[in-house]
Write a structure and sequence with these properties.
Two copies of one chain form a homodimer. The first copy, chain A, is about 65% helix and about 0% strand. Chain A has about 750 residues and is mainly alpha-helical. Chain A has a three-stranded antiparallel beta sheet.
């Protein structure tokens, strides 16, 4: 591994480019390669001068990176059209320097080993073939984008033209994506301001309309932008994503016009903004939210496969409902609230369906059970057959189908990734005398540097480029084949950390003081496990104090924990301290608690610091979490959770979409039907019209008796809370009962 | 496969036995085998007379089976001691007939193929070695028991002595096991008759005591019986099962004496029968209930491994409880029932713990939510962290640990099975000239016939013995090695069905009538799919009629379905009809409905046929299930369910054990505290002392308001219903609240 020594430097081969489209240059390259194929075998043993060549051709990475940054800036300003700029860039790149016989040293070194195998020695590759293998910029950018897309799991649907590639680059530029997310969020958040708005946030109709129009225009522009680089119009119009976006845009615009017309003509009462439930379409259908789209697609595909079990479950409920009707309807039983018990088939079905979710578990049984204890058998057998068996089989079937769907999906995305990498490989590759393609070290370096010039890929220093090559080219052959190249996407996704021996700031600045006897002892104490035990114990004592309600000790504990942080910072240094998550957490909690406490004591007013006080209290209690970080077994669990959190996030997103749709629907249908006015207190008189959540229909209902008036669809936030409650299932039938 | 032709006949080699212990005979066998090893190579090509020998040595299976049945009867009557009988049996077995060079034909046929491999041809086996290989009866019985135990998953802990083996056979005799199950059931059911008994079933104390004493004596005898054949006393006393049974017996006896003494001295109020909760010990610790024991063991071992997640979950609840206390206690909030809201830490913890089970989902939040909507965030974040994340991680950890535990357990049982089969193999085996053991066809037949004489293994006819041999000896070598023999247990568990072309009874008796033109047309109609569709449709119409409540059509439908059954029986014949589960189901439902309807109409009295009427109604509705059997997609589900039902049964058993323990505990602690007296009806006056479930403490409680008085521990059945309700989780905190 002689090349590993100068791993901080990277060979850089400058690229000559005469033509924007690159086709002319490309043909020349191909021609020269084919010529070289024939005499490649004679030159194979010509080696030894490699190191010298390396030294001549290398460039300091510093200059190169600056040069690339320049490029990127130019790209950012080129929002309207990049063709001219691209031409300028091409001209700014230096002419090539010679680079013959680059990796022959390793090639011939590998030779003796392969002598015993006659067949495989034919696979020896003409290294000199890439003497003039200057990859033109279009190809290079195309390859870089392909690799980048493979890394990020994109589909890489882009034409191999400089203009399209630049547009593609712009399309996925972090700034553009940030704008997209911002617009989607704004579009989503509009429901907060539209009527029924969250109290205090309501905006006039024209204001929300203007904001929505901005969003729509942005989405349209983004779609048109997408059209610029998609390989063919056909592909664009066949993509369900773009069609759905266009349809949604159309429907929304029509809906807005109808709404404005109806409001203008005084029909405000009946004016609905139905298209609002389509807003999640923009989340789902823009290319970025691949995970959410995949999750939704899998759900969509899983349902039909589980249909037969669902049907069987419903049939089972129907049969038990019929049985319940026949058994109980002639017995004159009543529910506690006075309604008749199982006297109609639909009511019977509904009650048993609710029982399936366990929400009315003993209640539904009690009247029959009180009449004759043996009727319990009916409900128990229902629970065993429908709940314990069929319900769990449904779970198993959904799980199994979802899993196999996911597996298919992953196989597909792996296939796409391989296709992209193969594209890149073919573009980058040189040819051997046997028409095998391979990627040389030069091409690799060019590729990675080009990728560095793409947004958001600033993770590959020269050392890393070199290191990655060493990994890919394990056998030191000086080139990589397709097999190795297909690993590139995974490899680039591995985060490479440079571990440096950090020298403490104080050590550097005040070595004598920091190294003094007392300082060393102090640092030893801090690093001792009893130091940790002591502060863990302090947290416990603090928690007990909070529990009992002794606030006087708070200042003491706050000081104590501040001292802990200072001591740790002193001993470990900032970087080492921040490296451990729990330290940062502790720092955040303690420092903000300190600041809040100072603010609290300086204000001296109770009334308007209630929220502040609550916040301080939360910060105090949060300290306890640090204990979890100090116990090894808990650390493992926390680490596991944090690893599966991204998956949670995806399904959180999907859940959000569903919540949003239902919230909008609920608001259109039920807003204002139920209002919270408080409840009669007994001691003070209460306005009768405000009773029953302001809705006389709720008189005597369990909904009012349980004081659920706060659960309503009066604004987006209330709706979300209500939907979360319904997700948790319990009492959902009671919450739902208000629809009556 | 020339032997497959006479597969309905089996070569039977009679066994000579001179000695009960068999050791003398065994030595002789070994001696003769070793002699034959040397000259085996000369006789290898001596073949061709095999078929003739087969004909000479075969016995009609009929005679043989009768003979074996005789043996079994003798065993059954020999409950006290079987030694003498065994001797008689030995003498009743015929002397051997000659059987030389039995399978050499195949041996030499295989020879040419093995010529190219010099090493493997050395493995050729001296077939003539088993010329005088008469296995003595002890060995044979031992081997049979080993194989049987391997089949049934038993541990096979038995001494290799005739007496012990006979005892072992008796111990696992179906009759003895039936007695055991009966006694265990009786012991369990005693709780129905002991105070607090199910109304109408209460027996005097002396009666239940006598019954319990009988159970204890039976268990003791069974334990002593077990001691008779366990290989060593040490092994007996090291077995946790026997120790637990002895301990339970002792505790129960002491408990009974104390109870009698206390009742005699007038302290009946304080006399508890604590040992009753130990009764499930007898279920768990008798060898038969392996599955339940395994399930319990796995649960026991899974809990410690999941401890850290449980602890983290509790810590998380504690932290949120502290936070809730600090946030809400100073705000003077009240629950709907007037109790203060989150004012004590223990109450706070309890409420959040209940919330974790979703049982008080929106209720616990409402007061804070009504005060300030933002407090919803507190509860939502609690639900996300503790319920959605930690709770599910706990589920995953438990699942994972339980699975790996189960896998370990299965690996262990496979190991034991292999050990048993190896034992049997070594006992049965003859030796080759290279000291390799093998099992000959004769030994195989002897083994299977001996196994037939064991109880409950009457599944192997002569055809089957032959067929099994063909499967084991795939290469027609005439012997089976250890590898093949280890598959015996699985192989014997495969149910072999003999498919015969059934000739319809009517076809046999009245061929002309049955084959007549109209009969054939009728049968074609019955087999047509529209015939099925018509009756499926009829069931649907019937269901609708039942739903609407038109009872007049019932007679019509009953006749219709009876006709269907008759037609099907006519077409298919009884056996073919009964082969399909859904037909039998239909037959059962329709015929019992017909009988019940006839009884119902003949009695003409409404009052005392209410239960009968209910039963008829259930039978009517059950008809709908047949529809499920007619739809293919549902059939698959039903078949799957029926396949996993045994697993359900095991866990049902485990659940029963837990229910029993908790029911006994609950009855001892809470019986009589809550009684159901009905509820005030408004119209009629109600005795105040009967209000609140007869317990004034329940005044104003949700328990009474929800009319849960029927949920109590007043007898075993009530307790079971209550525990099932608690298993379904909803409202459990309300049911529990009565303990206050």
């Amino acid at each position: 591994m002689d090349t590993a020594e100068n791993s901080s430097q990277v060979d850089l081969f400058q690229i000559a480019m005469s033509d924007d489209d690159g086709s002319q240059q490309k043909n020349e390259n191909n021609g020269s390669q084919q010529e070289n194929e024939n005499d490649g075998s004679q030159q194979e043993n010509d080696n030894g001068s490699q190191q010298e060549n390396d030294d001549i051709t290398k460039l300091s990475s510093q200059t190169n990176l600056e040069h690339l940054k320049m490029e990127e800036k130019e790209e950012k300003t080129a929002n309207n059209q990049t063709l001219q700029n691209a031409n300028q860039q091409d001209q700014s790149i230096h002419p090539p320097t010679g680079d013959d016989h680059h990796h022959d040293a390793k090639e011939s070194a590998a030779k003796p080993e392969s002598n015993h195998n006659e067949d495989s020695s034919q696979a020896n590759i003409n290294q000199n073939g890439n003497e003039e293998n200057y990859i033109n910029d279009t190809d290079l950018l195309y390859a870089a984008i392909m690799v980048e897309d493979a890394r990020r799991g994109r589909k890489g649907a882009v034409m191999k033209k400089m203009q399209a590639l630049k547009q593609y680059q712009l399309y996925f530029h972090p700034l553009m994506r940030f704008l997209l997310y911002l617009t989607i969020t704004l579009n989503f958040a509009l429901a907060l301001f539209e009527r029924p708005a969250v109290p205090g946030l309501e905006l006039p109709v024209w204001a929300t309309m203007v904001m929505e129009l901005y969003c729509l225009v942005f989405f349209l522009l983004r779609l048109l932008h997408n059209r610029q680089f998609v390989p063919s119009a056909e592909k664009f119009w066949k993509d369900s994503k773009s069609i759905l976006i266009i349809a949604t845009l159309l429907v929304t615009v029509i809906d807005m016009i109808v709404y404005i017309a109806m409001t203008a003509s005084g029909n405000q009462q009946h004016a609905l903004r139905v298209s609002r439930i389509l807003r999640p379409m923009f989340i789902v259908n823009f290319a970025e939210n691949r995970q959410i789209r995949r999750g939704l697609r899998n759900i969509r595909r899983t349902i039909p496969k589980s249909a037969s079990v669902i049907l069987l479950l419903l049939l089972c409920i129907a049969m038990f409902a019929l049985l319940a009707l026949k058994l109980f309807q002639s017995r004159n039983l009543y529910n506690p609230n006075g309604t008749p018990y199982f006297t109609r088939l639909d009511d019977s079905f509904w009650r048993l369906y609710v029982l399936l979710t366990t929400a009315n578990d003993p209640d539904v049984m009690m009247p029959a059970y009180d009449l004759d204890n043996w009727f319990a058998l009916f409900f128990i057998s229902f629970m065993i057959v429908c709940y314990f068996i069929l319900n769990n089989i449904l779970l198993a079937v959904v799980y199994q189908n979802y899993r196999s769907q996911l597996r298919e999906d992953i196989a597909k995305s792996v296939f796409i990734r391989r296709k992209l990498l193969k594209n890149a490989y073919n573009v980058l590759g040189a040819w051997t005398n046997h028409h095998d393609v391979y990627v040389t070290r030069e091409a690799w370096c060019q590729l990675l540097l080009r990728m560095n010039s793409l947004h958001g890929s600033k993770f590959r220093g020269d050392t890393q480029i070199h290191l990655l090559w060493e990994i890919l080219d394990k056998d030191d052959k000086g080139y990589i084949g397709l097999d190795n190249f297909l690993q590139v996407a995974e490899l680039l996704n591995v985060e490479i950390l440079e571990v440096k021996d950090q020298v403490h700031y104080l050590q550097r600045r005040f070595p004598r003081f920091y190294g003094s006897k007392y300082s060393v002892i102090l640092r030893k104490i801090v690093l001792h496990k009893f130091f940790r035990y002591f502060f863990d114990f302090s947290i416990l004592v603090n928690a007990v104090m909070i529990g009992i309600g002794i606030d006087a000790a708070e200042i003491f504990f706050l000081t104590l924990f501040n001292i802990e942080i200072v001591l740790k910072l002193y001993t470990l240094g900032v970087k080492e301290f921040a490296r451990i998550f729990w330290n940062s957490f502790d720092f955040l909690v303690i420092v903000s608690a300190t600041i809040m406490t100072i603010i609290e004591s300086s204000q001296n007013g109770w009334a308007h610091t209630r929220a502040l006080l609550d916040f301080v209290m939360v910060l105090r209690v949060l300290r306890i979490i640090k204990l979890i970080g100090d116990i090894n077994r808990f650390q493992v669990i926390v680490r596991t959770v944090s690893q599966i959190l991204p998956t949670f996030a995806t399904y959180g997103g999907i859940l959000l979409i569903f919540y949003y749709v239902y919230a909008i629907l609920g608001m259109e249908l039920f807003s204002g039907l139920i209002r919270y006015y408080g409840y009669p207190n007994g001691s003070q008189p209460f306005n009768q019209t405000l009773l029953f959540c302001g809705n006389i229909k709720l008189k005597g209902s369990g909904f009012y008796a349980d004081r659920y008036c706060g659960n309503n669809f009066n604004n987006l936030l209330k709706s979300f809370v209500l939907l979360i409650e319904l997700t948790i299932v319990n009492q959902w039938h009671d919450i739902l009962s208000k629809h009556k």
